[in-house]
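The record is given unchanged here:
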Amino acid sequence: MLGIIGAMDVEVAEVKKAMEDVTVETIAAMDFYRGILKGKEAVVVRSGIGKVNAAICTQILADHYHVTAVINTGIAGSLKNEINIGDVVLSTDTVHHDMDATGFGYPAGQIPQMKEFAFQADERLRNLAEECCRKVNPEIEVFVGRVVSGDQFISDKVKKQWIGDTFGGYCTEMEGAAIAQAAYLNHIPFLIIRAISDKADDSANMDYSEFEEKAVKHSVNLILAIAERYSY
């Protein structure tokens, strides 16, 4: 079974509409939509915004639904000049940019007592997503690289520069690393997909409001194509 997570209603609404034979179960104040998506068993859920919500959601998918893979779809701010609004980033790995145990000698982003600094996405899922994206969204650019996460909406060019320089990220958002960490600990393949809604700088608030719908559409089209071609 494929688990699909979006932080906001707008990120999963169209995916839910595409499902058949749907049953809904509420766990931890989250509604899990289980059914058939493009001929595949799937469960789709809005986790809510932020890393705690995202991690709880992923653990429920692991424990209650025994998913075979997790895909997190959503929108993000670009950290690179060449990645523009509407483009898509597929994760190679993910890092927490707001994890700071440097006072204990750890590098920024490193979780104390964990071997992994960055959580590696599943290569097979990523290759499938890249192939699907070039077919269903041929007019947009697809980038493959690091997704960085923190419980912050980045709308400051100085903060953006620090995150980009420190972590080498392609985009920044608020859930991916938590989902990746939970999936990693449960030995579940995962992929983080982000359509770019803003440039994570001083214009981010205005860009986000204007381009959210466009970015979400790109993500939804990609998710449906992946589900159609996904094999367990």
Remarks:
- The CA atoms of residues 130 and 178 lie 22 Å apart.
- The beta strands are 2-6, 19-27, 30-37, 40-46, 69-78, 88-96, 119-120, 142-149, 171-173, 190-198.
